[in-house]
Description:
By secondary structure, the protein is α/β, with parallel strands linked by helices. It contains eight helices and 16 strands. The chain has a seven-stranded mixed β-sheet. Strands 8-9-10-11-13 form a five-stranded mixed β-sheet. The protein has a two-stranded parallel ribbon with strand order 12-14.
Amino acid sequence: MDYDRPVKVGDGIYWVGTTEMDHGWRPNPYCVVDQAEAVLIDAGSRAQFTSLILKIMQMGLPPSAIKALVYQSADPRLWGGLCHLEALIHRKDLKVISHKAFLALGQQHVESSIPCSLEDIGHRLEFSSGRTLEFFQVPFACSSGSFVTFDRKSGVLFSGDLFSSQMVQEKGLFLELGMECRRCEGHSVCPRSEQECPVFAMLQFHRENISSEKALQYALKRIASVPYQVLAPHQGRLISGTEDIAHLNFLLTSLKEVGIDAFPGECSLCRMKSEPNGHAKYPETDGRLSVA
Length: 292
């Protein structure tokens, strides 16, 4: 697979990222193309802007065909290239679509395009052909405004931080698990290949980035009724095998010690008691923050 060119993920769906790491981070930007229109999803960092535009041009797609930019995360690294995209696309009707909380944070990067919250557009974006992108909110997975995007025509779910991972030894764009992987109890390093385990890395990513077990369970239930066939996460590898998707869903559904739930006790801030004069005190810590 030639990663120096756009990679087709589904019907009219292309991965337009790069295999080069940006300070240990490798985002997955995607382009949805329908006839003479296109939409970019999580368009990547400023450092990867040149590679992104080169791949779009390799598709024979003029930048002016891009009608909207979708940002599923508040990560400032993603928003950093927005002003460059605006200048290149050069459309007065270019829409920047995101959760209203993310738009408030990213407003500094918006110069000439039209900010649109999910509520403003009824949680859906239509192409002229009738093809539709649907947006589903998954709050606190990992931030309050998190959402995912589903393209019903291709069956691709752009899952944001869900099913994402961050691996040092990332190989290949698509994740394919063997039968032995589905039977494995989970090790940070695979006992067979002696390489970093992609499943372990995915679970660890969710433990460290999703806010809580409750948020993760809610997000998985939210997308359970979506008939997706391909998972295209914000970072890490894409997943398309039916058995692989089912196995990873099972592991994430039963995942423990996610986010704040990994702490064995309560933070002293949670145990604050109010004095009659309205001032808070820390009886166990004598005013100093600690974790029990």
